[in-house]
Specification:
Helix content is about 30%, strand content about 20%. The chain has about 190 residues and is an alpha+beta fold. A five-stranded antiparallel sheet has the order 4-3-2-1-5. Helix 1 packs parallel to helix 4, helix 2 crosses helix 4 and helix 2 packs across helix 5. It is globular, with a radius of gyration of 19 Å.
């Protein structure tokens, strides 16, 4: 449940002492299968596909059961189940060092947009509509929403590391700072 974009109400994250990478052999096979479909799409498309799982099934499924569900759909989408042709590999971006100025600079106050209208976002729910301060330009990277929708990487945009006072996010007893890397298109002036 804890990968639902910061959704509250699912209890504490349970950490298993000395947790194995895979709890059963089939999980390792699912992990290996994921490489087949990920050659022809983006990780954002994979995540978006998992998000399409009906809510009751999603909540009842284990981590790798969700992966298998997405792999089945992406394999069908890519023609792997009924054709002999393999889909073309897509290129992987390498984050360029930004050489252009962005809308924001170190020290600027920014508000996180609420980008969920349709599709996929990597913006955690607990940050949406909150104000933080830009710490740095982290990198340039293709917009995750666009790559989820198209299955291909678009043009890179600036990604900023933004710091938030945890007390504003989680209440007055929180005494730390939360940082998040957020795309320029997910930020606005406060």
């Amino acid at each position: 449940m804890h990968d639902l974009g910061g959704m509250h109400g699912f209890g504490r994250v349970l950490v298993e002492e000395d947790e194995p990478v895979f709890h059963a052999p089939w999980e390792g096979r699912v992990w290996r299968l994921s490489g087949t479909v990920l050659r022809a799409t983006t990780i954002d498309r994979f995540r978006y596909t998992i998000e399409q799982m009906p809510p009751a099934e999603y909540l009842a499924a284990s981590y790798y059961e969700r992966w298998l569900w997405a792999i089945e759909r992406l394999a069908a989408e890519q023609g792997l189940l009924d054709g002999s042709d393999r889909p073309a590999r897509i290129g992987r971006p390498s984050p360029p060092i930004p050489t252009w100025a962005g809308r924001f600079a170190r020290g600027d106050r920014v508000r996180v947009a609420n980008p969920v209208t349709t599709g996929h976002t990597r913006v955690p729910r607990y940050l949406r509509r909150h104000v933080g301060r830009v710490e740095r330009v982290a990198c340039a990277w293709p917009n995750p929403g666009e790559s989820a929708a198209t299955g291909a990487h678009g043009e890179p945009e600036l990604v900023y590391t933004v710091a938030f006072d945890a007390a504003e996010l989680f209440g007055p007893t929180a005494d730390h700072t939360v940082t998040a890397d957020l795309c320029e298109s997910d930020l606005e002036e406060p």
